[in-house]
UniProtKB/TrEMBL annotation:
UniProt protein name: Probable membrane transporter protein
Keywords from the UniProt entry: Cell membrane, Membrane, Transmembrane, Transmembrane helix
InterPro entries given in the database record: TM_pro_TauE-like, TSUP/Inactive_protease-like
Any single Pfam family the record assigns to this protein: TauE
Lineage, uppermost ranks: Archaea, Methanobacteriati, Methanobacteriota, Methanomada group, Methanobacteria
Membrane-traversing stretches: 7-24, 30-55, 76-93, 105-122, 143-163, 175-204, 211-229, 241-259
GO cellular component terms listed in the entry, alphabetical order: plasma membrane
Bilayer disposition of the protein: Multi-pass membrane protein
Top-level taxon of the source organism: Archaea
Family listed: Belongs to the 4-toluene sulfonate uptake permease (TSUP) (TC 2.A.102) family.
Location(s) in or outside the cell: Cell membrane; Membrane
């Protein structure tokens, strides 16, 4: 009998790749629930597979966004290095803290991240006519702050199999990058988290290679189409919806993790 998962898994990969490359992110927060709830994959394998599956999504998305001029390489490298450190730390933390407690910590953290994100959004609206390029000339303190946001994103990746989008997005917003630049640079940063996570979990023998390939082939196509769709959206309109939508996802995810 034909296994319809051979069609459904790449299809879900395509949809997730399209979604996250348009709004910014790697898709870890979507891969894990889809794999566990729809396809019945065990949480351990879902986490490892998620980190591997977001690599083609982030790589393809970052390349497309770079071609569109939506990636700040210098700032991305600073957050990315922090992400490497955080992902390794996260892997060790995962072996020390009970899963139920980890879920509560993640939920609380995502809700806390709403505060700097909201403050940055309000500040940007007050200075909407000012085009900021502070990230191109990061001072010592700002580099430290940026790297800490990267570390936080890496910890999320290492512990929960998430891409680490919320702290990275909040960090880029706090540095004053435009919304479209935040999207592209976030995806670029998540490459570091994904590669480091793959290496860590590969050593643990938790990667399901066929599953990764099925998800990856669909997500790459979606990730390439996302920036093309984003280019057709009016920047002013996108600026209005991106922040609130990002905060909405963070709020719902945070509450759900605390409650369930």
């Amino acid at each position: 009998m034909f296994d319809f998962n051979l069609i459904l898994i790449p299809l879900f990969g395509f949809l997730i790749g399209l979604f996250v490359s348009t709004l910014g992110g790697g898709g870890g927060g979507l891969y894990v629930p889809v794999l566990t709830l729809i396809f019945g994959v065990t949480p351990q394998v879902a986490v490892a597979t998620s980190l591997a599956s977001v690599l083609p999504t982030t790589a393809a998305g970052a390349l497309s966004h770079y071609r569109e001029g939506n990636v700040d390489i210098r700032t991305g490298l600073i957050l990315g290095i922090g992400g490497i450190v955080g992902t390794v730390i996260g892997a060790y933390i995962a072996n020390m803290i009970p899963p139920v407690l980890l879920k509560k910590i993640l939920g609380a953290f995502m809700l806390i991240m709403l505060i700097p994100t909201l403050r940055s959004m309000l500040k940007r609206r007050k200075n909407k006519n000012e085009v900021k390029k502070e990230s191109s000339k990061l001072t010592g303190p700002k580099r430290i702050i940026a790297s800490l946001f990267g570390v936080a994103g890496g910890i999320l990746a290492g512990v929960f199999g998430l891409s680490g989008t919320p702290p990275v997005t909040a960090g880029l917003y706090s540095l004053g990058l435009p919304a479209m630049m935040v999207v592209g640079t976030t995806i670029f940063v998540l490459i570091f988290n994904s590669v480091t996570g793959i290496g860590t979990y590969l050593l643990l023998g938790r990667l399901d290679i066929p599953l990764v390939l099925l998800l990856g082939c669909g997500s790459v196509v979606g990730a390439f189409l996302g920036p093309k769709l984003l280019k057709k959206i009016n920047p002013k309109n996108f600026e209005k919806i991106y922040g609130p939508l990002t905060m909405g996802i963070m709020l719902i995810s945070g509450v759900a993790l605390l409650v369930y």
